[in-house]
Amino acid sequence: MTSTTIDFETIKKNQRAGWETGDYPRVGNTLQIIAELLVEAADVRAGQKVLDVACGQGNAAMAAARRFAEATGVDYAANLLEQGRERAAAEHLDVTFQEGDAEALPAPDRAFDLVVSTVGVMFAPDHQRAADELVRVTRPGGRIALACWTPTGMIGGLFKTVGKWAPPPAGVRPPTLWGTPEHLAGLFGDRVEWTALTGRAYTFRYHSPAHFSEWFRQHYGPITRLAGTLSEADRERFAIDLAEVAVRFNRAGDGTVAAPADYLESVGVVRG
């Protein structure tokens, strides 16, 4: 199936409705350390122009602003942008938040020194178009830095579980492919020289597997939206399935959850 036969606009409309359901920052804020590590790996400098693509509530944009970069965050979910503005104001950080599509970024060519995304751009349904946009808005010699969940890690397992209840649209490639060097090579070709491809893990910490399941059903927008479509009996089975993901990856032995989730941290230089 080619990209011309997939209705990406409808897919994005449904995605956006998912992210605007629930309260994703209750999950996303816990991932701040991923953004801090990514910005450090990209060696951001004070005064650089930095774009955080599919920024959500602004983790990477805020990490860049803490280092005195000129930071902008772009996302298509207005509620997440508003929470980003609130967070930046509370921390006295100068960040610009702008509504926009990762597949059609509202920015001129070669406008940024550094373009980053933490578990964000990977969800754009048209992978190639999103990758092309990342390159377009980065100046030659500038950097692209990404943190993306892997297919075989905990979040890859979570997405597979969710997919059993709500199969993804036909022809759309899994977002976790962005967490593999092979997929990045296919998307970016010789336009980006990947100088660092580092496997990392973020540890999800919850009171129990049931608490993990409850938190994601209450706050992780796409899962919240899916749960709302299920019957009472199916919601109970779905809750158990989500908890079993935490059990499968858990390394804690005290009843709590401390479950590492693998992701790929990628930093590359855009060739002129």
Biggest sheet strand order reads 3-2-1-4-5-7-6
Query: What average pLDDT do the residues reach?
Result: 96
Q: What is the string of SSEs from the N terminus onward?
A: HHHEHEHEEHEHHEHHHE
Outline: globular
Structural class: alpha/beta
Number of domains: 1
Using the CA coordinates, give the radius of gyration: 18 Å
Which ranges are low-confidence, i.e. pLDDT below 50, for 5 or more consecutive residues?
none
Instruction: Give the strand content.
Output: 15-25%
Q: Main β-sheet: number of strands, strand sense, barrel status?
A: 7 strands, mixed
In helices, the fraction of residues equals 40-55%
CATH topology: Rossmann fold
CATH architectural label: 3-Layer(aba) Sandwich
Description:
With 272 residues, this protein is of the alpha/beta class. The chain has a single domain, classed as Vaccinia Virus protein VP39 (Rossmann fold), CATH 3.40.50. 42% of the residues lie in helices and 24% in strands. Strands 3-2-1-4-5-7-6 form a 7-stranded mixed β-sheet, with helices on both faces. β2, α5 (78-90) and β3 (95-99) form a beta-alpha-beta unit. α1 (8-19) packs across α10 (221-228), α3 packs across α4 (59-66) and α9 (209-219) packs across α10. The two termini are 32 Å apart. The relative contact order is 0.16. The model has no long low-confidence stretch (mean pLDDT 96). Residues 50-142 form the Methyltransferase domain. One of its GO terms (molecular function) is methyltransferase activity. This is Methyltransferase domain-containing protein.
